[in-house]
Amino acid sequence: MLTIKNxxxxxxxxxxxxxxxxxxxSLTLNDGDFVTVIGGNGAGKSTLLNMIxxxxxxxxxxxxxxxxxxSLLPExxxxxxxxxxxxxxxxxxxxxxxxxxxxxLANRRGKPRTLRWGITKEEKVQFKEDLKRLxxxxxxxxxxxxxxxxxxxxxxxxxxxxxLQRPKxxxxxxxxxxxxxxxxxxxxxxxKEIVEEQKLTTLMITHNMKDAIQIGNxxxxxxDGKIIYDVKGExxxxxxxxxxxxxxxxxxxxxFSDDRGVLI
Length: 264
Known about the structure:
By secondary structure, the chain is an alpha/beta fold.
């Protein structure tokens, strides 16, 4: 479903602030893969997702999604193929619009726009059913402005919006990191449910090593813009947090540098 070949990205090239964020990175995801991504600070995890989404142009290499090369496609054209949830709950929704209006925008992603009435009766029924599964009571608040919701409610809504049109690829950039533990677990459980139900090909960055081991069918570890460890299936499920620390030391010669990951 996703193929990345020898992709590199350097920021501030030729200056004292030069940073090679991705270094000839290659990665292939099969249809339905749920891949968790871990790595220390500055490993290139978020840059990888930004390159796939088209936020920044790549310096070299190729990116293919469902056999179509998207390396040169602008971000707005990739948006109809890719769903994304950010770390910041404020980024995935429009605060001044109603819950139903946010869902309507997501439902029209990649479709032609017309001058017809904004939200149809059929959509309202669909949205109400979709919101019920969140278990947050939002189906009774569809006319409320999204800015009135809590961070967890907004993140759950963003997740629903990102998966509404069943994207070819779902990108999750530490989407529970800004939430309290109880809310984070609820959003993570909802994530697993949606991904499994829709069989979405998913890349999820997380700083929680336990979550990285337990969730999905594959785990990759990044360091200095490269993938240094790639494990899947039963072998992945048998891993422990100590195993991941040891693998990181063996591959990089350093200790894992993400403080949050060390503590979990």
